[in-house]
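Continued from yesterday's entry.
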Amino acid sequence: MNSMRLPKVTYHEPKNVTEVLQIKGEPNEESAVLAGGTDLIPMLKRRNTSVRHLLNIKKVPEFRSISGEKGGFYIGPAVTLREILDHPGIRQSYPLLIAAAESVGFNQLRNMATLVGNICLDSKCTFFNQSAFWWKTRPDCFKRGGKICYVVKGAKRCYALSAADTVSALIAVEAEVIIQKLKEERRIPLEVLYTGDSVKPHALEKEEVVTGVILPPPSKGWLGGFLKESFRGSVDFPIASLSVRLKMHDDKLEDIRIVLNAVSTAPVRARKAEASLKRRPINQGTINEALELILQEASPISLLGATASYRRAVIGAMFVELMNSEIGREV
């Protein structure tokens, strides 16, 4: 029987960024970055992932920092959600992110979990996230290297969900991520990080590491809110999460961001719905029109204990609530 113990790995405690990138760049050696470990450690114990090397990055000073970045903020990959929630500058300037971070798990988990870890959360599936002992009784799914999906019968690919709580808020505020490997660095909008391929949900090469999140300079006049629906509050992964961020001008929408997560294989930026609302007043008619487009773009699927129809109902209720009642909040 599977004891749920950690597999044998070579443990590293690199002291600087170069050491991290050197180990990560070793050819033919699978490695994983450990910061909070709230998702990685259970995955290793269940044998949902397999690596030869485990890199604890908590002793890299740059990775533990929150600093100013051209009027915004740089957040290192070992910065915990608790540190973000307690940071006065982030709390004042990015209440949308604060609301999303507060929805993650419970206090003890937020004390350990990191923002970058949440961004890099593996896609989730009721079937895949079982133990190796459970999987001995059935053929492997796509995500385990097999040829079957237990979620969508007859499917030709994996349908595990993108489920991280903070992602919709970060995309709504137009956050970027810094990605590094030896002698190379790139900086991309966060939404570009997600591939929609549940087997490889992040656009990262084997030797690359997400070394930071960049929050852009805050600007005034934006309103909005964040909502998450789950069966047991923040303890569970969401049935759906939604961030709305908008700016009004003369009683009409000047600009808007509508971002969902936990409804598909990647976060969903509802661009058609955004376009339908621009330069129009907010009323029941425009809200209903936008909602139809959101549901078309999101195409919710049945997974994590919620059917597609229930997930659609949840998205609709959250969107209407945000547009009607919480849209007065400055974000």
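--- second protein ---
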Amino acid sequence: MLPRAIKRLLHQATISDQSYRFMFDRPPDGDLVVIDCETTGLNVRRDDVVSIAAIKIRGNRILTSEHFEAVVHPDSEMGAEAIKIHRLRRSDVEAAPIVWKMLPSFLRFIGARPLIGYYLDFDIAMLDKYILPLVGIELPNERIEISRLYYERKYGNAPPNTSIDLSFAAILRDLNIPPRAQHDAFDDALMTAMMFVELRDLAERGVRIARERSSPVFNPTGA
């Protein structure tokens, strides 16, 4: 697999639609974008995006007033399990635009900003299967993975065989972030944005997230 920096240079040289060259501009200083997708399932090749949200972060401010949100009409059928998870019914997506009509606005919203997400590679893989035929390249943006930032703060210095929980619920709990409705693209993006701001602050201050001890600590005094 090519290193991401080399892949970015190749994409810059081979982009087929020059109107999207802004994707390689220098992003505004301090600007990042959190993204989240809801899908018909977890198979990148077979399943489709049904909703997407993106929220800008500027410095330490989460700009909910500057967000992108769209429901899209999937090509594949939505199964009952997927409907239970993201609570979008077939009737909710029936009149929604197809993903190809939404993509240009989404790409202009995120621009060249670094992208933040929870298990971001899956969301980007889902988007890339539409973006590649449209633009001729995959998303070139820098990626920031929330579960990796959380792992570094909580488990980066953990001893071997430590039990590790990287679930969304565990991150919310450890960072004291109030839960919102999960599997809603906007709410998930907003919670992820709050996670990022908190984790970045902890990293800048050199603070680690406390772990519960897996076994009692021996105390020679018997206390």
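Helices lie at 4-14, 80-86, 90-94, 99-110, 120-135, 146-155, 168-174, 185-205. Confidence is low (pLDDT under 50) at residues 216-223. Will compare against the first tomorrow.
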